[in-house]
Amino acid sequence: MQPDSIATIVEQWKRERPDLDPTPMYVIGQLFRLTGELDQRLRSPFSAADLGSGDFDVLAALRRSGSPYSLSAGELSRTVLVTTGAITKRVDRLEARDLVSRSVAETDARGRLITLTAKGVELTDELIAVHLDNQRRLLAGLTGKEQTQLADLLEQLVSTLAADH
Fold it and tell me: Could you tell me where the beta strands, DSSP code E, fall in the chain?
């Protein structure tokens, strides 16, 4: 990461257009840069487990849903925030590896439930521990109080954007 590239851009705008406050550009620029950096650093444990992009999200959603670790494609779609088509592709990959199974829903013969297999539970439990350790390491430069403050500020920003939409 280049630590001052965004600051340089902001300073240039301050110089060229002193009538404008470029502070929002600095905040948004830092968020964009951080998103890319975090995505890159968080991906490696999943790649090492031969999981495609978003596959762990499906496994984690099923695991945290509680026993029997089953959700419909629609429930998964809402939980993971992707289309049911994207869920279908991910479930196909995971089913091919015996990490999930599909079954007919008891309440609707047209509906299908996606369920973690024992192998899927084991892999998910292993990866969530690695994932949380990785996240902890990435946030180690902030104190616990700073992490809480940052989380609160980001939640406030998300709420503001949601209300504005």
Answer: 70-72, 100-104, 112-116
Angle CA 4–14–155, to nearest 5: 60
Same domain, 43 and 82: no
DSSP category for residue 111: -
List pLDDT tens digits, range 42-64. Answer: 999 999 999 987 999 999 999 99
Q: Within this chain, do residues 156 and 88 fall inside the same structural domain, yes or no?
A: yes
Q: What is the mean pLDDT of residues 22-50?
A: 92
73-82: which pairs have CB atoms within 8 A and are 24 or more residues apart? 73/112, 73/114, 76/114, 80/54, 82/54, 82/57
pTM (2 d.p.): 0.81
- Determine the structural domain holding residue 71 and report its residue range: 51-165
Kindly give the interhelix angle for 73-80 and 84-96, rounded to the nearest 10 degrees: 110
- Alpha-carbon distance of 7 to 153, in angstroms, equals 21
User: Which amino acid makes up residue 39?
Assistant: D
| Rounded Cα–Cα distance for residues 157 and 152 (Å) | 9
CATH of the domain at 158: 1.10.10.10
